[in-house]
Structure formats: structure tokens, C-alpha cells
Specification:
The structure holds 2 protein chains of 2 kinds. By secondary structure, chain A is an alpha/beta fold. Chain A has 18 helices and 22 strands. In chain A, strand 12 (225-226) and strand 13 (229-230) form a beta hairpin.
Chain lengths: 433, 563
């Protein structure tokens, strides 16, 4: 039995890198240090996996050799006038590189899953900036921690123990040295362990943030309650925030995807920026997919924009609401799609999904999903971080190398390899040789 | 592959060639004495000026903070777009261009080596990923060490050897090139929302002063025999009256220069050459600093010249960026990195009519013209802090031509103009001196022996411009010269023609230099247990996941050094 240490978990944006994976005969037999999600992924990833490439012939998806699937995929993409390339958050940066190159080659549009999660964070970042840090700063220094619209005890299971509340750092030794504030619409698991739980009325986060900003400046709030919270509580919380030595605000989709979207983030950024007048305060989005941040990062250095990039003019263009994939699909402008490691058919709004299904779709994914069921071409890939290497960016932008702990089945190459072959075939077809 | 460049007017200051009409022979990427004409590609360079490929030792082109700058400024990208061609990738960006575009644009101006001067070690994997995607150029990156916990602790307990062993380990682990110090101690203090304004204040909890950090790392640099001196971004950057800190910083390592070497390089000195006690009496201290530099041989500096334009400021100096955010009202990105450093980004527009901005503009030029020895100066804007690198030709002509300076001076804030000594400075750089400030000096400071000159054995990185010094007087025809400097007629990289008439014609990958410092194996053993403990306690990644393999570098070029 081989024990592989320091394995980076390819599940959520925490990218815990202390896993110990035991492997016997190319099979993972146990995982130490991982959370429940991590364990489940490592021990069950083989279930419902795809094992062979298929191409749709009539009603049926027929198994084919990888070469044929690649040829068919490339043909569909080359024949399309405006393909969309979507997904990218559950794979390595190396694959994201190739995706962008392919989108550019095809004059298509490329988008990643932040279009449906932290896209508003990005838009607010563009408007106001973003005071942030790496997670170690929080571990070593933070005495006040806020989770707003985020429930890490059910979404990022080790976030509190590794990085925030319970983490033992240089100046904070653990739970007793820190104050936990949770703002949410319901009493979540995380709220149950909080020192302060603020129950905000749904879709009223902006109002609550604004009231907090007023309270910080000791301005008079001429109401008894704001967003369902008593003004006394708002003022008390403001004093807690003002009085800390190092505060950190973590926020989730409860803030980005509720009414107001990027405006909620504008308020949050303003709040944190204001707090730096009195103390040190930082903020960080709770990124979901293990490498959605990597997708934003690679998109940025190659195209200048973090998501929703359109190449139809031969250079990168960005205008969320226009160049974002859901909007392109909703206007029915695209005529083919390539989906990599994502399940848009199960997740997109109906109108976008309908458009997606009207046109040929190629899916590269290790899993069987609703999207693979509907695809014209499906190419199974290896699990990044389990069966092949790759680079991923943690929620705080610290890059880590994902390890390979077992060999993939021979019919499931790394998606990097698949994309490379598709790109090569596309170039061959376009060059006409 | 052989190449023969004929009849170019060559400026190669390292080899005392000043505007001599001659041939340049190239074989296997190196300059050689001669090649067989029948085998070689012949390039007729009659009427052209040839220089070694440009070397920029301080330009923020890749890595986490640059990328966050890109994220912050979509409006910047709209100012410049580049379509995909058969050969080139597409891109965008004016002050913070995308990576491919960065490589193409530098090469288009005749530059072939560019250094990313500030990378947080923990995030350097990112920096290398971007450098890989920056084509054509040779490059390297400097890890930020002035606020590093290991460094501060070893120096506090006077364990210089251990500190050196740690730095050697780090350079190897993250594939870095030189020691970079940014506002030593101040960025750690910024972890608590404070900053240090002088070099004698104590860093909170670490009980050490910036002076001790600077001196300590300078000694480490000597001990390891690194090819380049410490690169220091002085404390109190950006603030009125900060020239005193700069003087103190330079003075504090006067005694540490090794024979024939500099002990310190002051980065973007313009930002640290301010007199006055506030913004209303803000003034230039360029003359004072130039006087000091003229009298001392242990120090070099790059300019950090500002341009009147809309740009993006970015630095590891988190506390300064917060001040700039408050001063300008512009949006603010902060990014502190555990146990190591920090960073901030603020968009900024330098305005001609603004008194302070105009003074800043005069400072860089005043300094460049008053330092007598051009080998002590490198032309930079601290890209993109003072302005984007594509505007370098503008600065070059200000140095070459009094008339060009006067034309620019006429438009600046009147009070600033009246206060500046710039109008009275008659000096004009010769083309040879320009080659020193943009090629030879930076290559020498970096310790890149095969760069910045065209002697036999040098890397065949050559730039050719449509400037015929026999018919063109840069002092008078500065517009023509500026235009020519913007678009190299040819750029040759390792013997291959990569640019023709300013357009990229070939896209080889450049090398990434990194340092393998040997000789402290014993001390490294002691350091190893400290590393294990500190990572376990204070970092959020495991020690084993910290080092970056050579496989992350597209074309790694390690340089071994030994004491």
C-alpha cells in the first residue's frame, strides 16, 4: 500500500493540501484529513463515471474510438458560426489555457461557472476594488470573522477549522481568541456556533450593510429596525467590527445571488474599505468549485477579463449581460457548444438550456451528467487531482499543484490532452489540410 | 543558424563601441567574430542604428498583483485591443496588458529581457505561469523578502548564515533570481493596518528595524554571492520629505559593497526623492540624491519616471497604496500574503496641470540628468506605476533632447515649472549613454553577463532602429527618433529575427533565469526544521507543496552561484 501525503483536495475552493491518500493496486482505499465531501469524492469518484467516448447517431449515443470523437467534435466546432465554450471550473489551469486558445481560434465565446456564482463579486471588484489577503493572514491575525450569506459548515467543511475560527495561528490560538459573526436569512449550522447571529430579511443585505456603514460613522439611523434587524443590534455589531484588531468578511452566494447582486457587493466592499479607517479589515469570496478561481485567473492574464469573454471580433470583448453564456443562449445566438467539466443542462435557466439543446453539444467530463446525456459528442476525461495533475487556485488566489494519485482508465485521458487534440484537429480542418 | 547584420551603426557601450559602422555576426544564438557569408542570412542594416536588445530590470508584467490590476480595470483594456493573427494571439490592455501582448509589445520596441521585480513567494507559481505566457522575452522574477518572517527572525537573532541558507533555499524553491525588499517591515506592520515611515522604527512583534533588515539582507546577498545587489523599494515611498529615508537607506549599506560590486540598487527612485513637509510645499529632492549617488560607488538606481497618463499603480507596499487610495479617491485592491508580504493596487492619473504630478515628472528627469555616470541609472517607469512601458521612447527622447524636454515642460503646471531646475540642465544623453541606461547598465546590475552587450559570446539579442546617426540629430529630430524607437526595424532574439518593422514575425519562448546558490548545505539542515515548524504553524499550505518544480518554467535557465 502506498501512502501519498500532501495531496491537494479537488473539491471546493479551500483546496486543503494535507490529505493523505492510501492507494493499493491503483485503487484508493482510504483518505486521511479530508472532510466528508473530500472522502466521498475520493472513495466514490469511479461511480457513474464515463468510460467510453460516444457520438450521437440518430437517437442513440454510439461508442466510438477517441479519435473519431475528437474529429467529430472538431468538425462541429469548425462548422459553427458562433460556438460557446463553457465550464472550466472543475479542471486544471492547463486545460483552461487550451480552452481560451480554442475559443479564440473559433471566434467563439468562452465563459466559466463564475457567470452563475461569483460573477457579481467580479463586477463589484471592477467598480470598487477589493481589500483582501491570503487565508494565512486570517489564521494568524483575525479576531473577528464574519460569514455573510455563507454557511461553510455545510459547504466548505474545513474552512473554519483550517483557516478561521478554530485555526491556531501566530497571534490567535483558536476559538477563544476569535469572535464569529454570521449574517444569514436563516439559522444555519454555522450560525449555531456564532457569537453573533444576525438574521437578515431575504434580499435586504444591501440595506443592512448600508445601516452598518452609518452606524460605524455614528450616524443616526432613524428607524427601529433595518432589514429585520433592530438598530441596537446593528450598532452593537458596528462596535464589534470597529473595535477588532483584524477582521475578515467571508461571503457566499447568499450575497452575490440575492436581489441586488453586484450592488450587495458594492456595499460590502464599501463597508470593508470604511472599516480600514479604524482597524484592519479584509474580505474574501467563498469560492465553490475547486478551480473556479483559477478559471478567473487564467482568463484574466490571457484575455484581460475574468469570465464572459467573446472572441467574435478576433480580440477579447467583455460585457456581462451580453457576452455571458446564459445571455448568448437566451438570445439564441450560438449554434454549437463545448462543455468542459460542468452540467449546464441541469443548472441553467430554461430558456438558455433550450437553446443549448437545439444545437450540437460536445461534452468533456469524467462524470455522467444530464448534459452528457443530451450531447452530440461525449469524451470521458480523467479526474483532475486524482488521476492526473493540474494547477488550481485557492479561493484566496494561492496556486497549488494538484497531484495524481492513481492512473486513469486508458479510455479516459486528461482533459488537457483531449483539448489539445481537439485544438489540433480544429486547426487542421480550418487550414484545409 | 547564422545571421550577418551588415553596415549597422553600432552602440555597444560595454565594448566601447560608440556609433561605429560595422557588421554583426551571429551563430547559434550568440555573437561571433565572423560567419560564412554563403551560409548566413544577410540583413542589410545600412542607415540603421544597432544596440543590444533592451533590458528592463523593473517592470511589473506578471503575477498575482498584475492580474488583479487587470481584473480591476476593464476600462483600461478598451484603450488597446489586438486581434489574433495567423501568428499572434489576441490581447488587450494599455497599462496592464495581457501576457502575450506584453511580450509582443516589448519585442516590438527592441526589448528582449524583462524582469518582474516583485513576487510573493507563496504565489510565485502564478508568476511563472504568466511569465511562460509572456513570449519572446527572457525574464526572471524577484521574491519579496523584506517582510518575510524567517528573514526577520534570523536577522533579529543575528543568524546571518541561517538567513542566507533560507534565502538560498527559497530562491531555488520558487525559482527566483534576486532579493527584493519593499518597504522593509512596513508591509508586515500593514498586516495590522500600520506602516513604518523611517528605517529606525520597530516592526510590531518582530522587534527589528528596517535598517537591520536592509543590512542583513545585503550581507546575505554578499554571502551567497548573488549576481545582483539587493533591490530596495525604500520606506515611506510616495510621501513628501521621503528623500531623507532614501539617503539613510543608501548610507546604511555603504560599508557592505564587495570589491567591484554595488551593494544596493534603489528601485524607482523618483517615488522616493520628495522634499517638503506636505503636499503644498512638495518639492524635488532629485539634486540631493543625485549628489549622493555621484559621490558613492556602492549604489545604483532606476528612474521610475512618471508620464502624464492614466495608469495603474501596483506595489507590495500595501500601506502606501491605502494612502494613495485615500488621496485619490480611486478604487483600492489590497492583498496581504501570510508570513511574507502584501500588495495594493490603485488606478491613478498623472495630470500635467497638477502641481504634485508635475513635480514628480521633473524629478525623474532631474535625477537622470544630474547623475553623471549613466552606468548608475536604468530607465524605467516602474511599469505600470509611473506609466506603461510602451511610453519609454518618450522618456528616451526627453533624455536625448533638451528641446523635447522644453516642449513637454511648456505644458506642465507653472508653479512646478518655475521651481524645477530641469530647464537649466543642458545635458543631453548621447545615443551611447541611452544604450547604457536601457541595456548595458541594467544587464550589468542584474549580473547577466551575456546580456546588454554585443561582444563575442554575448547572446545575440539585438535591436535595430531606423535611425541614422550620421544624418539624424536626436537633439533636434527627436520626433523622428521617438517614432523610430517605438517600432524596432528589427529585433533579433538569440539570433532569430522576431520583429520586423515593429511587427512580430516569430514567437520563440524566452528563458526564465533562476538562481541556484550553493555552499550553505550545513546551515540549510538547521533551517529545515525551522521551515517545517513555521509552515505547520503559520502557513496554510504544507511545506512540501510550496516548492515549484522546473517543469513549471517553459524554458528554465538556472544560474549556479557559490560563495
Amino acid at each position: 500500500m502506498d501512502i501519498i501525503t500532501g495531496v491537494v483536495c479537488p473539491f471546493c475552493g479551500c483546496l486543503c493540501d494535507d490529505l493523505e491518500v492510501a492507494v493499493e493496486g491503483n485503487k484508493i482505499v482510504s483518505v486521511k484529513n479530508g472532510c466528508a465531501y473530500s472522502l466521498t469524492k475520493y472513495l466514490n469518484y469511479q461511480k457513474e463515471r464515463l468510460s467510453e467516448a460516444v457520438v450521437r447517431k440518430g437517437e442513440e449515443q454510439v461508442p466510438v474510438e477517441l479519435d473519431e470523437a475528437v474529429r467529430k467534435a472538431a468538425q462541429i466546432l469548425v462548422d459553427a458560426t458562433y460556438p460557446v465554450l463553457y465550464g472550466w471550473s472543475s479542471t486544471g489551469c492547463e486545460t483552461q489555457h487550451l480552452g481560451i486558445e480554442l475559443a479564440e481560434e473559433l471566434s467563439g465565446a468562452i465563459d466559466n461557472t463564475s457567470t452563475v456564482c461569483h460573477g457579481p463579486t467580479v463586477e463589484a471588484f471592477q467598480e470598487l476594488g477589493h481589500p483582501s489577503c491570503t487565508l494565512g493572514q486570517v489564521k494568524n491575525r483575525a479576531d473577528v470573522i464574519i460569514y455573510w450569506g455563507s454557511n461553510p459548515l455545510q459547504s466548505h467543511l474545513r474552512h473554519l477549522s483550517r483557516y478561521t475560527l478554530g485555526a491556531e495561528g501566530r497571534w490567535r490560538k483558536g476559538r477563544d481568541d476569535r469572535t464569529l459573526v454570521v449574517v444569514d436569512v436563516r439559522k444555519t449550522y454555522t450560525a449555531r456556533v456564532a457569537d453573533y447571529f444576525i438574521q437578515v430579511e431575504p434580499n435586504m443585505d444591501f440595506e443592512l450593510m448600508s445601516a452598518l456603514r452609518m452606524a460605524l460613522k455614528h450616524e443616526e439611523i432613524e428607524q427601529d429596525t433595518v432589514a429585520g434587524v433592530s438598530v441596537e443590534d446593528v450598532e452593537e455589531l458596528a462596535e464589534v467590527l470597529r473595535g477588532c484588531e483584524f477582521g475578515a468578511l467571508f461571503y457566499g452566494l447568499g450575497l452575490t445571488m440575492s436581489s441586488g447582486k453586484n450592488r450587495n457587493l458594492d456595499a460590502a466592499i464599501s463597508l470593508v474599505t470604511d472599516l480600514n479607517k479604524w482597524t484592519k479589515f479584509v474580505m474574501m469570496p467563498m469560492r465553490g468549485h475547486f478551480n473556479v478561481n483559477g478559471a478567473n485567473t487564467v482568463f484574466l492574464w490571457q484575455t484581460g477579463y475574468p469570465f464572459a469573454v467573446d472572441f467574435s471580433h478576433g480580440y477579447p470583448r467583455y460585457n456581462p449581460g451580453v457576452t455571458s453564456v446564459i445571455d448568448i443562449l437566451s438570445r439564441d445566438e450560438s449554434d454549437a457548444a463545448l462543455v468542459v467539466s460542468s452540467d449546464p443542462v441541469a443548472n441553467f435557466p430554461r430558456k438558455a438550456t433550450e437553446s443549448l439543446l437545439r444545437n450540437p453539444m460536445i461534452v468533456v467530463d469524467p462524470h455522467k451528467t444530464v448534459t452528457t446525456e443530451k450531447a452530440e459528442v461525449v469524451i470521458p476525461s480523467a479526474f483532475v487531482g486524482i488521476e492526473c495533475e493540474g494547477t488550481a487556485y485557492r479561493m484566496d488566489s494561492v496556486p497549488l499543484k494538484l497531484k495524481k494519485v492513481v492512473e486513469p482508465p486508458s479510455s479516459c485521458p486528461a482533459d488537457e490532452e483531449i483539448l489539445r487534440r481537439v485544438l489540433k484537429e480544429v486547426r487542421r480542418l480550418k487550414g484545409g489540410n | 543558424m547564422e545571421l550577418l547584420i551588415r553596415n549597422a551603426v553600432v552602440y555597444d557601450p560595454s565594448n566601447n563601441i560608440e556609433g561605429e559602422k560595422m557588421d554583426l555576426a551571429v551563430r547559434n544564438g550568440k555573437i561571433v567574430e565572423s560567419v560564412e557569408e554563403s551560409n548566413a542570412k544577410i540583413l542589410d542594416a545600412a542607415g540603421m542604428m544597432a544596440m543590444p536588445g533592451g533590458v528592463d530590470l523593473h517592470s511589473h508584467i506578471a503575477g498575482p498583483k498584475v492580474n488583479k490590476g487587470r481584473q480591476l480595470r476593464p476600462e483600461d483594456h478598451l484603450r488597446y485591443v489586438q486581434r489574433k493573427t495567423q501568428l499572434t494571439r489576441s490581447g488587450v490592455g494599455y497599462s496592464i496588458p495581457t501576457t502575450f501582448t506584453t511580450g509582443y509589445r516589448y519585442a516590438g520596441m527592441g526589448y528582449t529581457t524583462v524582469i518582474e521585480p516583485a513576487t510573493a513567494p507563496l504565489e510565485t507559481r502564478h508568476t511563472h505561469e504568466e511569465l511562460n505566457d509572456t513570449p519572446i522575452l527572457d525574464k526572471a522574477c524577484f521574491p519579496l523578502l523584506g517582510d518575510n518572517w524567517f528573514v526577520m527572525q534570523y536577522l533579529k537573532s543575528s543568524e546571518i548564515e541561517k538567513c542566507a541558507a533560507y534565502v538560498a533555499w527559497l530562491l531555488k524553491a520558487i525559482k527566483g533570481y534576486s532579493i527584493k525588499i519593499v518597504s522593509p517591515g512596513s508591509v508586515e506592520a500593514w498586516g495590522w493596518g500600520h506602516g513604518l515611515r523611517s528605517i529606525d522604527e520597530l516592526v510590531p512583534f518582530f522587534d527589528i528595524t528596517p535598517r537591520e533588515i536592509i543590512r542583513g539582507l545585503c550581507k546575505v546577498n554578499n554571502l551567497l554571492n548573488l549576481p545582483s545587489p539587493i533591490h530596495v523599494h525604500c520606506n515611506n515611498l510616495g510621501a513628501p520629505g521621503n528623500y531623507e529615508v532614501t539617503l539613510e537607506t543608501m548610507k546604511c549599506v555603504e560599508d557592505l559593497a564587495k570589491e567591484g560590486h554595488h551593494s544596493i540598487h534603489i528601485v524607482h527612485i523618483q517615488f522616493n526623492a520628495y522634499g517638503g513637509s506636505g503636499w503644498s510645499d512638495f518639492s524635488s529632492a532629485a539634486t540631493k540624491l543625485a549628489k549622493y549617488v555621484n559621490r558613492h560607488s556602492h549604489v545604483t538606481a532606476d528612474l521610475g519616471q512618471v508620464l502624464f497618463t492614466d495608469t495603474t499603480t501596483m506595489t507590495a507596499d500595501g500601506p502606501w497604496q491605502y494612502i494613495l487610495h485615500n488621496l485619490s479617491g480611486n478604487r483600492w485592491v489590497n492583498h496581504d500574503v501570510e508570513a511574507e508580504t502584501g500588495g495594493g493596487i490603485v488606478p491613478y492619473q498623472y495630470r500635467r496641470r497638477n502641481y504634485v504630478n508635475a513635480i514628480q515628472w521633473t524629478i525623474g528627469l532631474e535625477f537622470a540628468l544630474q547623475v553623471k555616470d549613466p552606468w548608475k541609472i536604468c530607465l524605467t517607469t516602474d511599469h505600470p506605476n509611473g506609466g506603461p512601458f510602451i511610453e519609454y521612447p518618450r522618456i528616451m527622447t526627453w533624455l536625448l533632447s533638451h528641446e523635447a524636454r522644453d516642449a513637454a515642460m511648456k505644458k506642465i503646471n507653472k508653479r512646478a515649472r518655475n521651481k524645477s531646475v530641469l530647464e537649466s540642465l543642458d545635458r543631453e544623453y548621447s545615443l551611447g549613454e541611452l544604450a547604457v541606461a536601457t541595456r548595458a547598465a541594467p544587464a550589468k546590475i542584474l549580473g547577466l553577463m551575456n546580456k546588454g552587450h554585443l561582444g563575442f559570446g554575448a547572446d545575440a539579442d539585438i535591436s535595430l532602429y531606423h535611425i541614422d546617426p550620421s544624418t539624424t540629430d536626436p537633439s533636434k529630430d527627436y520626433r523622428k527618433v521617438r517614432k523610430a524607437l517605438r517600432r524596432a526595424t528589427y529585433t533579433v532574439k538569440e539570433g532569430e529575427i522576431v520583429v520586423k518593422e515593429g511587427e512580430v514575425v516569430s514567437i520563440p519562448d524566452g528563458k526564465t533565469f533562476w538562481i541556484e546558490a550553493e555552499g550553505l548545505e550545513e546551515a540549510q539542515k538547521d533551517v529545515w526544521s525551522d521551515l517545517t515548524q513555521t509552515f505547520e504553524r503559520y502557513y496554510t499550505i504544507r511545506l512540501e507543496n510550496y516548492p515549484i518544480g522546473e517543469d513549471y518554467l517553459r524554458r528554465p535557465a538556472s544560474m549556479k552561484v557559490a560563495p
